[in-house]
Amino acid sequence: MSIVERETKETRIRVAANIGTGIGASRTGVEFLDHMMAALARYSGIDIEISATGDLKHHTIEDVAICVGAAIRGLTPPTAARYAHRVVPMDDALVECALDLGGRPYYRGPLPSSLYDHWMRSFADNAQATVHIRVLRGRDRHHIVEAGFKALGLCLRDALADNGTVFSTKGSVGLKVDA
Fold it and tell me: What phi and psi values does residue 51 have, to the nearest 5 degrees?
């Protein structure tokens, strides 16, 4: 179980996540965000419970991404399969996601929504993941964004699988920071 809490002057977020069956319960006050978090949970196989309050939709979406990313980082075993690639068709939309949970944050999009493109960037930074999203086709922004979250979810399902060995030529990487 990975629990992340974030409180600022602008938001109060709590995310609890665990590898499970894909049950998503999200109460953010942003209906489309709740819809995307339910899709992410379902397709990833991660049980995610999110509660959030915020002053602006932008702040809520960004801080939920930060917390979900940190929660995923907390669930990633050292022996994770690490890499994944999926393409999801959804009506007119066709969206590709490639993922590496190897500890190097990077995001390349874009999605056709600045709020949800920013969600992906904030998620990647805090999951310490490389996330590439390519929109191959589509006209309906809802379908494109939703296909992106479903593709990310399927990638997380694959990349989080424990393969029993460290999947890196470097072996296990340690980093110690004294503050």
Answer: -125, 135
